[in-house]
Amino acid sequence: MPKRAQFYLGVVILGGLLIAIGTWLIHPSTDWSPWIFVVLALLAAFVNTSKFLGPSYESWRINPVFLFAGLLTLPFHFYVILAVIPVAMDALSDWWRYGRTNRSWYMYPFHGAIYIIAGAVALWAYGLLVGESKALTSAGGLAGAILAAFIYVLIDRLLINQALSLFQFTSWQTYNLLDWVDSETFFTDLTFPILGFVVAVLIEINLWLILPALILIMLINRSATVPQLRKEAQTDPKTGLFNARYWRTLVFAELERARRFKRPLSLIMADLDLLRTINNVYGHLAGDVVLRGIAD
Questions:
Q1: CA separation for the pair 16, 117 (Å, rounded)
Q2: Using CB atoms within 10 A as the burial measure, which of 7, 115, 133, 260 is most buried?
Q3: What fold is seen in the domain 3-234?
């Protein structure tokens, strides 16, 4: 790992740790039901078992729905515990699967720190807009929740974006935040905390009202697999390139478009020298990487 990446990870983890310790030492006494924490913790743990792949190989879960709901309804020091649950589950799962061979252990406290930092900044912005009352059911509560949700996702992507650029020795523009904002995945990520606000409003009215909302969340959880299944049907699992069937569909569509608009169409075919040698000497995985690199 590059030294600058080590320093960055250390700063982020230390920042999250200081915020967590500070909220436990200095936390205001508020009236809240322990059942809210129990229900949200169980739901966050349950949905954390499902991970989905986006169209650009990014992975995501829907547990921010319940994390953000906890941010708005629980004391912040209990939100910290709630945020640590999915991270701890991932760490235990990977430790059970890979044991000591897993060398990316530092990513678990890093992701936990991101949840804590993003939650702290988002809650601060929410308090500035809503005021001391922090009424979720008011118009100000809605505006504050949307602002907090945007900041929550933005901080998360900023911190991860910087980590990627440091780990891979690339510039900030390689993982341009504006590209992420314009992308489909950013608004998908933004949907989850906003839905968490809806869950928080239902909790404030009556805790048991979140049961009907779980049907909608389960439907979203189910529909989240559709892009992944579509991608698997269109691409080769080894290289990630279009498979022959989908490539054939695209070619015929382009041919028909060229014929309809009466414009020329060019098709470049290339034969890769020594690809069999690469497969025999370095293995087929190396050959797949070469194919992917040439295609890119």
A1: 6
A2: 115
A3: Arp2/3 complex 21 kDa subunit ARPC3 (1.10.1760)
Enumerate the domain spans of the chain.
Answer: 3-234, 244-295
pLDDT tens figures, 40-64: 988 888 877 766 555 444 556 788 8
> If you ran DSSP here, which 8-state letter would residue 243 be given?
P
Both structure tokens of 19: 């915020």
H/E element, 123 = helix 107-130
- Asked whether 122 and 149 are in contact (CB, 8 A), the reply is yes
The answer to whether the beta carbons of residues 72 and 152 sit under 8 Å apart is no
Contact of 163 with 8, CB cutoff 8 Å? yes
pLDDT at residue 169 greater than cutoff 80: no
DSSP 138: S
User: What residues are paired with 60 via a beta bridge?
Assistant: 52
- Mean pLDDT over each residue of the chain, to the nearest integer: 79
| Arithmetic mean of pLDDT, 169-180 | 51
DSSP letter for 59, please.
Answer: E
Query: What's the CA gap between 253 and 140, in Å, rounded?
Result: 50
DSSP 198-214: HHHHHHHH-GGGHHHHH
d(CA 237, CA 281): 22
pLDDT given at position 130: 82
Cβ-based burial of 161 (10 A; exposed 0-12, middle 13-18, buried ≥19):
middle
Q: What are the helix and strand counts (H, E) for the chain?
A: 13, 2
- Number of residues that this document lists for the chain: 296
Q: What angle do CA 241, 233, 53 make, to 5 degrees?
A: 80
What is the rounded CA–CA span in Å between residue 200 and residue 22? 24
For residue 3, pLDDT beyond 60: yes
The residues pairing with 59 across neighbouring beta strands, listed in sequence order, are 53
- In this prediction, residues 204-225 reach a mean pLDDT of 75
Q: What is the mean pLDDT of residues 2-7?
A: 81
